[in-house]
Each structure stands twice: as structure tokens, then as C-alpha cells.
Amino acid sequence: MMNLLENNKVNKTDKVQKxxxxxxxxxxxxxxxxxxxxxxxxxxxxLILPLVAYSELLTVENISYEKMxxxxxKMNQNASRLIDTFTNVLEISKEKSKLLFPTPxxxxxxxxxxxxxxxxxxxxxxxxxxFENQIEPEQNVYADKEMIHSVLIxxxxxxxxxxxxxxxxxxxxxxxKENLYQIHIKDNGIGIDEEKKEKLFSPDHYxxxxxxxxxxxxxxxxxxxxxxxxxNGGDIYAENNQNETGATFSFTIPx
Length: 255
What we know:
Layout: H1 2-57, H2 65-99, E1 105-108, H3 109-119, H4 121-126, E2 130-133, E3 140-143, H5 145-161, E4 168-177, E5 180-187, H6 194-197, H7 221-231, E6 236-240, E7 247-254
Parallel strand pairs: 2-4
Antiparallel strand pairs: 1-3, 4-5, 5-7, 6-7
């Protein structure tokens, strides 16, 4: 009789433990889903910014027909990319929001940066910021393409945001280990407040700062950049540039 009671007690304890583990896993999934959808909204905001910048250019008085036509063409191109990206995000979110597991494939990182460069052309033009992509044209990486796209567009939008008019943004990279590639996004803007640097990538501390041209942000971007980079087996960090103004954001992803 005692053995039966002891066995029942052990079985109940085991069930309680399994239930606690299941509840904890469910909680983590819910938190991940919420974080992902917040990051998606942040990405969509970054994609709309160029359209806003172009529309502002159209309000300038005495604008020539040729200039107006050129701006209209760029707005059409950006709107088309926005539609394509929005469609992709909807499809991706259906899968990624389940458990947020990355789906790594081999792809060209130089071409991806060029794609984002074109997407942000209006923001760069508005502040007369030069952009240089020094990544080798044939450089491939092995990671979830959509996740790293989100990381790149957030870091580059931030670089534009905190760079002064007439400034410069440079993207370069190097192999740091046999299986890791390190990407650097360098600007000559206002740099990073040392007191806030430790909290830049924390999901519990959303730091919102105003850009050099009055741009505002949600503070969500860097936290989800860290999350996506980590999920792809890499790391991310930021440092102020030595002996010059601005900052460099760097992250690693597998080769």
C-alpha cells in the first residue's frame, strides 16, 4: 500500500514538473512572437522613410520638371520595393512567428547591402551623406537572409539618422575565424553615449534618441538586431571610432 502511494506521489510530481516546463516554453514562445511582430513594424517604418523623404523634396518651390520626374520615378521604385517587402514579411512572419528559428542559406552579402543602399538612397540624398560598400563582390555568408536583412536595414537607418549632413557611411567586412564573417557599419556622426552603450542591445531598455536632422525612433531596432544575430550564431557590438567622430556597429555571421 505504501509503495502504491509513493508511486502515485512520484507520478504526480513528474506531471507537475512537465506541466511547469510546458508552461515556461509556451511563455517564451509568446514573448518571442510579440518581439518579432514589434520588430516587423519597426522594419516597415524604415521602409516608408524614403517615401516620406521624397515627398518632402516635391514640396520645394520652383522644382524643375526633370527633377520632379526623377523623384517620381524613385518614389515608384521604392513603393514597389515596399510592396514586395511587405508581401515577403507577411509570408515570413507566418513561419518565423512560430518559434523564430532561423533558416540559413548561402547568399551574397555585398549584393544585399547594395539593395539596401538603393532603398535608402533618398535618406542619404536628403542629408548629402556619401555611402561606400567595401564588401568583396563575391562574398557569401550562411545565415537566415530575411533576419540579417532586418539587421542591416536597422543598422544602416541608424547610421543615417546619427550622421550629420555631408557625412559618410562605410560598410566593410573581414573573415575573423574559419567560419565567421564580421561586418562593420561605420559612420562619422555623433557617436555613442558611453553611459548608454551597455544598454543599447538590451530588450529591457529601449533607448530613443533624436537624430541629427530631428529624426525619431522607437528604440526597438537594436534589441531585435541582437536577437536575430544571436539566433544565427553570431554576436553584435558597438564602439565609438578612435581618433575620429562617429561610431562603428559590428556583427558576425557564419560563412
